[in-house]
Specification:
DNA polymerase, domain 1, Integrase_recombinase_N, 3 strands, DNA recombination, 3% strand, Integrase, DNA-binding, 3-stranded antiparallel sheet, DNA binding, globular
Length: 318
């Protein structure tokens, strides 16, 4: 019977063929929590040590730190792992099915940001920090509804500013994979004002540097390509309650803990919802933002039922 660690490695060896890089990272993180608990407070080493009561103990342990939506996601990954173990003949079928999933708090979404607030931040950036790294980053995240992986993957050569579009390219061997691999590659139209910001950044403010693969990244702070963590840090800072380059007015120790701050994915979610609220056809928007219309409805549409009704009224001229 394999150890828990060996079984997890076997699980990832199989799932790496079908999961995107970002999904694999998520599964690694979720199972890391179980592995750490099992090897510590759980007192578990091998798969045959795990009983349904242990899964219940783990759920109680994690519930002290997680909300119901996050707990739901973590237990779903754990159940997928244990179902894999059952297929391998390493555990009884009843073990994964003994996991009781919590009721999620509403539909599958977390935080959003009001479009007017994003507009105000962009106005401040245009006035006080024109063509800065923050200005470029937020302009692209908001107007193009990009994921972190997409915005940091852009090289200067991918930009076609005279024709106002950018090409997103999946380059996994060079550190910039896209979520859906080759399926995420696409050409995205840019607003004219965004092109002006990008030109000014490239011509006047961008540090002259390359990344570890001798590519020329659009987003850089002077030492190679901007990391995923740095993208998050910049967005948390931009959306925190203190305003541009100011400490938080609340008691939060870090920008990420500020009740006003949002993550890059929240910018994407709110951006997609704003496009929908303006009446953009979902099937057309789907290609721009690299997600299906079903996923768009379930995960990204943060409009209220009243907003949807008003939009239908305008569409039908009622």
């Amino acid at each position: 019977m394999p150890t828990i660690d060996d079984a997890v490695e076997a699980y990832f060896a199989e799932r790496s063929i079908e999961l995107s890089d970002s999904s694999l990272r998520n599964h690694h993180y979720q199972l890391k929590q179980f592995r750490q608990w099992a090897g510590g407070a759980g007192g578990l080493d091998d798969l045959d040590d795990i009983a349904p009561i242990d899964l219940s103990r783990f759920r109680r342990y994690r519930s002290e730190d997680l909300n119901s939506n996050t707990m739901y996601n973590q237990l779903c990954v754990l159940r997928l792992f244990l179902r894999f173990c059952h297929r391998m003949g390493w555990c009884d079928e009843a073990l994964p099915e003994s996991i009781v999933l919590p009721t999620r708090a509403g539909r599958s979404r977390d935080t959003s940001i009001d479009p007017d607030r994003v507009g105000a931040i962009l106005d401040d950036l245009e006035r006080y920090e024109y063509a800065s790294l923050d200005h470029v980053l937020l302009s692209l995240l908001w107007t193009c509804s990009l994921r972190i992986g997409g915005v940091r993957a852009i090289d200067i050569k991918d930009l076609h500013l005279d024709d106002r579009w950018v090409k997103l390219v999946h380059r996994p061997s060079e550190g910039t994979p896209l979520k859906n691999k080759d399926g995420s590659e696409r050409e995205v139209n840019l607003h004219g004002w965004v092109c002006d910001v990008l030109r000014a950044w490239i011509d006047d403010r961008r540090p002259d540097c390359t990344d570890d693969y001798s590519r020329t990244p659009l987003l850089t702070a002077g030492e190679g390509r901007l990391s995923r963590t740095s993208v998050r840090r910049h967005v948390y800072s931009l959306t925190a309650c203190g305003g541009l380059s100011e400490p938080c007015e609340c008691s939060a120790d870090r920008y990420s803990q500020c009740s006003d701050s949002v993550a890059p994915h929240d910018i994407r979610r709110s951006s997609i919802s704003a496009w929908l609220d303006r009446g953009t056809e979902p099937a057309l928007l789907s290609g721009r933002v690299d997600t299906s219309t079903d996923t768009m409805e379930k995960h990204y549409d943060v409009r209220s039922e009243t907003q949807k009704r008003e939009l239908r009224r305008d569409a039908f001229d009622m």
